[in-house]
Specification:
3-stranded parallel β-sheet, D-Maltodextrin-Binding Protein, domain 2
């Protein structure tokens, strides 16, 4: 049951992130970062696609630092991190 709640939470967070990232303006959501979070986001993106088949996802890895760097540089819409942000990362 707890696993189902976590999955629903991730799908909900993913949906909110997509809306904030401009999914309404694009049919593709780009995501990069944490290899720990990646399988969860890939599964959540498949669930999201069931409700919104017009939206596709490109999910890449690279690690938490890469996720933070690429979202800050506007290279991707969503950055994944499996750790708290470092002080220097919050200033970007």
């Amino acid at each position: 049951m707890l696993s189902m709640i976590k999955q629903v939470s991730v799908v909900g967070l993913l949906a909110m992130g997509c809306m904030a990232a401009g999914a309404a303006e694009s049919d593709q959501i780009t995501v990069a970062g944490s290899s720990t979070v990646r399988p969860i986001v890939e599964k959540a993106s498949k669930e999201f696609a069931k409700l919104h088949p017009e939206v596709s996802f490109v999910v890449g890895g690279g690690g938490s630092s890469h996720g933070v760097k690429t979202v800050a540089g506007e290279e991707v819409m969503l950055g994944m991190a499996s750790r708290d942000l470092k002080g220097s990362e919050t200033k970007k």
